[in-house]
Amino acid sequence: MAYIITDDCVACGTCISECPVEAISEGDIYVIDPNACTSCGSCAAVCPSEAIHAG
Fold this sequence. Notes:
Elements: E1 3-5, E2 24-25, E3 31-32, H1 42-46, E4 52-54
Antiparallel strand pairs: 1-4, 2-3
């Protein structure tokens, strides 16, 4: 199941470089492409605002 980014996202950019499949897109709140996400959890592990959770 793909990870999702909640409204708690502060768009800091930390997660983008952690994603091995480049599934995260920038924006006011970042977005994870559910079709590309491999559910590895790397992004959630580094998110300082704990805004990324399993969907």
